[in-house]
Amino acid sequence: MRIWFLCKVKYAKENEQGLLKNVSEQYLVDAVSFTEAEARIYDMLGSTIRGDFQVTNISKSNFVDVFPYDDIDIWHKCKITYVVADADSGKEKKVTQYMLVTAHDVKEAYDRIHESLSNMLVTFRVPDITESPIVEVFPYEHDDEELLPPPPANLKPLSEVKAEQERREAIRQENLASKSDSPEEEARLVEYEGEDDQEDI
């Protein structure tokens, strides 16, 4: 499940008259921790914002999913509600979730959120839709893996650990087999057989 972090960024933005004005904008970042969210927002905005900028706040958002459409970059916050039965008591309970979708207006956002959730197995309602101040959303991409901190040097991938364990077990089995077939073991068996013959006499 994705974790979306809301990042507030402050910087000097040039307006239509060519004057610089301090603005504060909100961005949504897909990350696994606050540290990664901060690293990603600095990396994403470093090439788009001219001059210095400051990340003034990072917080976990309550969004569970986002649905971007290519024709517009205006985000709308959609409140989704549906009813499910509790597995233990069997009683019905109301679930509320929040999602984002890009649309030109509220009506289009309503249509698009229904289209995006058409595969849901339960009947849902959309009681509220508002235009969001979020400027841009940065979902996680495979190319962003380099932003993650490297694992400690003493840790190995699980596949390597299992392979090493299997190799050691194979060596142990070979050693046990070689010991059981060794000449010393055969000599002991002959000696024991000789003792048994003497007892019979």
UniProtKB/TrEMBL annotation:
Q: Which Pfam families match?
A: DUF4494
Residues annotated as region Disordered? 145-201
Q: Where is the composition biased (Acidic residues)?
A: 192-201
Name the source's superkingdom: Bacteria
Q: Where is the composition biased (Basic and acidic residues)?
A: 159-172, 181-191
Q: InterPro entries attached here?
A: DUF4494 (IPR027848)
| Protein name stated in the entry | DUF4494 domain-containing protein
